[in-house]
């Protein structure tokens, strides 16, 4: 059965390691017949949450005029969410955190989704583990989320170094089996 998959790439570098892993996940998912949409946060206008609380009780709306309303629709429509980030100081980067903060108007409406995490780190296992934990803090606020897997690469810094690694194969397989 075909699924709607939404990939959120927080990589600030097009062709960065986490972004390339997203592409490989997408390739596998498309080959399996799934409908896949990839959003690169760095190519979207996403303002910071101002804490105005207008969204509280506002039926999924935010007063800010940026690209988030279209992304909200895609999130609600998706069967599978893929959250991808490079590691910054043992956590997700600012682009992904800003995006997550702006989910507030719809977070109580996000239900019954499969979730994958994609993480790339120059360091080792500890930065990846702490980043995955920070991503779980977000997904634990949602209802009926099933964490399906984490695709992580460590020990690389330069953009594109993930090419040819086993992690690329893992990303492809995860997409194929989503």
Automatic annotation (TrEMBL):
Question: Could you tell me which residue ranges the NADPH-dependent FMN reductase-like domain spans?
Answer: 4-146
The entry's keywords: Flavoprotein, FMN
Gene3D superfamilies cross-referenced by the UniProt entry: 3.40.50.360
State the InterPro entries in the record: Flavoprotein-like_sf, FMN_Rdtase-like_dom, ISF_SsuE-like
Q: From which source organism is this entry?
A: Oceanidesulfovibrio marinus
In terms of SUPFAM superfamilies, this protein maps to: Flavoproteins
PANTHER family for the chain: NAD(P)H-DEPENDENT FMN-CONTAINING OXIDOREDUCTASE YWQN-RELATED
Q: Which GO terms describe its molecular function?
A: oxidoreductase activity
In Swiss-Prot or TrEMBL terms, this protein is called: Flavodoxin family protein
């Amino acid at each position: 059965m075909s699924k709607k998959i939404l990939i959120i790439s927080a990589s600030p570098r097009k062709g960065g390691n986490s972004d390339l892993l997203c592409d490989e996940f997408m390739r596998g998912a498309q080959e399996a017949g799934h409908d896949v949409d990839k959003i690169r946060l760095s190519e979207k206008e996403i303002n910071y949450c101002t804490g105005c609380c207008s969204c509280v009780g506002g039926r999924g709306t935010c007063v800010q005029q940026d690209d988030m309303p279209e992304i909200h629709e895609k999130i609600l429509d998706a069967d599978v969410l893929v959250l991808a980030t490079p590691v910054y100081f043992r956590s997700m980067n600012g682009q992904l955190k800003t995006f997550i903060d702006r989910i507030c108007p719809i977070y109580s409406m996000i239900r019954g989704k499969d979730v994958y995490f994609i993480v790339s780190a120059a360091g080792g296992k500890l930065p990846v583990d702490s980043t995955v934990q920070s991503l779980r803090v977000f997904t634990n606020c949602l209802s009926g989320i099933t964490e399906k897997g984490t695709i992580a690469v460590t020990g690389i810094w330069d953009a594109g170094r993930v090419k040819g690694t086993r992690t690329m194969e893992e990303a492809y397989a995860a997409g194929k089996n989503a």
